[in-house]
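In response to the reviewer comment on reproducibility (Comment 2.3), we provide here a single inverse folding case reported in full, input and output, so that an independent group could reproduce the run without further information from us. The structure tokens appear first.
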């Protein structure tokens, strides 16, 4: 009987909270355009079939980054370790190195997947740099799209702002 009384008192306290009017939807975060990158790639190396699908490595051999806060070149360091699944999905895991016009080095890691058959890969990106001018990139939440081009990939990147 004591347990039943305790449960009843808990319900009396919780039910008004459940019946309260829903809060207004919060405002979405801001978004600012970070850059456009044209990534040049070399010949693909087929790693082969694994249980999850087929793995290939596509070396990054150059390119350019142009954006409102920084621009630079993509160095011939990195690759895209891609997984093509039997269901037709492509998972990208790309690492690359940007050298800005003012000489800063920024390590970039992009990962995402192609969700449809339009060739568009949705990616999330993290950055690492020791440059005090671009230190904010170490904490940036960035996302974008990547699509194959004639010589590699075209990437458009955005940055979530508070």
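Designed residues, in position order:
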């Amino acid at each position: 009987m004591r347990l039943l009384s305790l449960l009843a008192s808990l319900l009396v306290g919780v039910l008004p909270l459940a019946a309260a009017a829903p809060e207004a939807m919060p405002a979405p975060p801001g978004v600012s355009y970070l850059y456009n990158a044209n990534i040049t790639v070399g010949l693909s190396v087929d790693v082969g079939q694994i249980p999850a699908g087929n793995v290939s490595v596509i070396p990054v051999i150059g390119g350019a980054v142009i954006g409102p806060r920084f621009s630079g070149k993509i160095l011939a360091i990195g690759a895209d370790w891609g997984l093509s699944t039997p269901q037709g999905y492509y998972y990208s895991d790309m690492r690359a190195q940007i050298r800005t016009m003012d000489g800063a080095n920024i390590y970039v890691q992009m990962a995402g997947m192609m969700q449809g058959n339009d060739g568009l890969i949705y990616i999330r990106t993290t950055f690492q740099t020791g440059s005090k001018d671009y230190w904010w990139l170490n904490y940036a939440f960035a996302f974008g799209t990547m699509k194959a081009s004639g010589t590699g990939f075209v990437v458009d990147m955005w940055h979530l702002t508070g």
